């Protein structure tokens, strides 16, 4: 793509989606105001608990992959590195999230190429798990697909097992590293361990999706009894937002996808409000956990002391 056109798409696409959502909210404000909203505090508290597992489990998965590649990184330092580096995904350009993780993990003596490769494999496993959940329950979210869609779940399951094979992950992670213009290191993680980590990735989506379901159900009675659909919507929206590689953190694309999918079970303006509120909810969780990681988990200084940067002259 032409560089200037790429920059235009990067900034105008999320802006256009947010303008569309804002317009839908503005023009239907009376309908939104009269909607039977609710505010269920116990459900909201559960949403915070389940939503937090997204960060805790992803950090655990990454630490396991680092361990599988014959380096040692304890869980809590890995969580600290993960949370601090995650903030960088809001910076335009997909590279900064990984550059940050490489920089921080190096303070724990983890080689940069290994950090990048393990981070990319963790991302690929999470993507495969999200795709599997979306495929398995697509007919629940989009009833027009009907039950004939069900046999494709077996195809998706077999495809997932193929995608997490070490040779397949070697290929995809190497391509991603090339796309990010970063060094890549070969790895020898056993297939059985990768399948186990894939199961952990699926669990991550189930628990984080439960958090999203509790969040939506704490605001509207329209979502009651639709937990599986909401888990699927959350995974599908995240995956589509991630695949929009030019948009930082999938901003706008994720909310637009979520609005379309939620509109199956509630009015479109209500779905737009909830999609935007969900982004704020996840951001709040991220800020709280980032603050906790910085305050309560000790770690090496992010920069060298001045005395070490420039040795005294004689």
Low-confidence stretches: 304-314
Number of helices: 14
Mean pLDDT: 81
Give helix and strand order, one letter per element, not per position: HHHHHHHHHHHHHH
End-to-end Cα distance, whole Å, is 55 Å
Q: Which range best describes the helical content: under 10%, 10-25%, 25-40%, 40-55%, 55-70% or over 70%?
A: over 70%
The main pleated sheet reads as: none
Q: Total number of β-strand segments?
A: 0
Rg over CA atoms: 21 Å
- What share of residues are in beta strands? under 5%
- Basic shape: globular
Q: What's the number of structural domains?
A: 1
Structural class based on helices, strands and sheet pairing: mainly alpha
Can you put this structure into words, describing what you see?
The protein is an all-alpha fold. It has 14 helices and no strands. α6 runs antiparallel to α8.
Throw out a few tags for this protein.
314 residues; mainly alpha; 14 helices; 72% helix; 0% strand; disordered C terminus
Which helices and strands, and how do they pair?
Layout: H1 3-27, H2 29-34, H3 41-68, H4 75-86, H5 95-106, H6 112-136, H7 138-141, H8 152-163, H9 166-180, H10 191-217, H11 227-243, H12 253-262, H13 268-296, H14 306-309
Helix pairs in contact: 1-12, 1-13, 3-4, 3-6, 3-10, 3-13, 4-5, 4-13, 5-6, 6-8, 6-9, 6-10, 6-11, 10-11, 11-12, 12-13
